[in-house]
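=== RUN LOG ===
request id: a7f3
mode: sequence -> structure
chains: 1
length: 152
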Amino acid sequence: MELVPHDELKPSQSFNFAPMIDFLFLMLSLFATLAISRAALYDSEVELVELKPEKGAASLRAKEVQQINLSITSNGGYKWMTEFQEYPMETVQAIQEELARQYQIGALPEDKSKTEVLLHIDRKAPWDPIAKAIFAIREIGFSARPVYDSKD
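=== RESULT ===
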């Protein structure tokens, strides 16, 4: 009579796959997390448009589309820029009111899609005033486009 039965002393012919499956699941979750975080890093960068007037087409484009220039300063302030002077704007509501006023008096085209508001953004400007300006301009039906000057 033996203390341990002879069947239990025989080596097992099966292989335990549970640790291997756990390891593969951990590797899959690690690479999925890396892929998502890399995509989030690359998608967060914003590319700005550089204005380069084309020869001959600049005068035609100026007749088709009315452009309004707004500046966002490094401290988050707004300025309405004309050819001769800059007018400080206190809030985005002031920008909305000025756009609506100019639209009502006929200074802007009837079709709002033919009016572009160009946002000249300082490199050190905080994002909150930029986002507020873009949403406020789009809220009243105009298009807002961030631009930069290559001379700066």
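=== NOTES ===
Strands lie at 49-50, 66-72, 78-81, 86-89, 115-121, 143-148.
The longest strand covers residues 66-72.
=== END ===
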